[in-house]
């Protein structure tokens, strides 16, 4: 597997992370997961806008601009011969090495790693369970893809222990937020509902794409605090992220949800636009 590390193409096994790297020691960093289809990265500018916004929030200097990162993406896709498949691209940025303790060094040396792997073009419908792990909607990391992913890992583990594919997390107020790796949508009476960002929701790139697509299809859209009761009353539910686009939910907290009408319509529109 070929990776791109700090401007250099090399085998993934040849990437060496320093023992003093703050991303390794403290989770001091962030990432973007992008999809590419037949060698073309999808929604690249939207991902870069979120990346740059995250860097500003965390006071990270980005050592590479969009053009340089796009060139890195192209080289990694070509180097791995991922020009005829669907590919997951993971761009990881850490603050670099520093002395012991929490305070970042005055002079930063961010480390940038880009990796790629093949992913399916189609994902089966999902079984989802509400878990005990809560999202902290007041956390400054609630709206960024931080390297501190322990809450998400624990949530996914709990879901898997109950035979589910994905976890659904509530926030401290008991409102629905998102999955461990996905945003969530509900359909009720042809109305599309999704939790609002301020409830502790990551502003997903595919989430925004779904909202735009649903608007074009004439759906009434509601972004608001959602109570767990909607799980028992919705007509449809589906998950979104950049890799599986739209993934219908066939079972949520033990309730079977057979309908995928709107999920399929939205998915087909999104795939056609790629």
Overall morphology: globular
Query: Could you state the order of secondary-structure elements as H and E?
Result: EEHEEHHEEEHEEEEHEHEEEH
Strands, total number = 15
Task: Classify the fold: give the CATH topology of the largest domain.
Answer: D-amino Acid Aminotransferase, Chain A, domain 2
The CATH class of the largest domain: Alpha Beta
State the low-pLDDT regions, or none.
none
**Mean of all residue-level pLDDT scores:** 97
Q: Class by helix and strand content?
A: alpha+beta
CATH 4th-level superfamily of the largest domain? D-amino Acid Aminotransferase, subunit A, domain 2
Largest sheet: 9 strands, mixed
CATH architectural name of the largest domain:
Alpha-Beta Barrel
Strand content: 25-35%
Account of the protein in words:
With 274 residues, this protein is an alpha+beta fold. The chain folds into 2 domains: 2-118, Aminotransferase class 4, branched-chain amino acid transferase, N-terminal domain (D-amino Acid Aminotransferase, Chain A, domain 1), CATH 3.30.470; 126-273, D-amino Acid Aminotransferase, subunit A, domain 2 (D-amino Acid Aminotransferase, Chain A, domain 2). The protein has helices at residues 22-26, 44-57, 66-79, 150-161, 205-216, 230-233, 261-273, and strands at 2-5, 8-11, 29-37, 40-41, 86-94, 111-118, 126-135, 166-171, 176-179, 183-188, 191-195, 220-224, 236-241, 245-252, 255-256. The radius of gyration is 19 Å and the shape is globular. The mean pLDDT is 97.
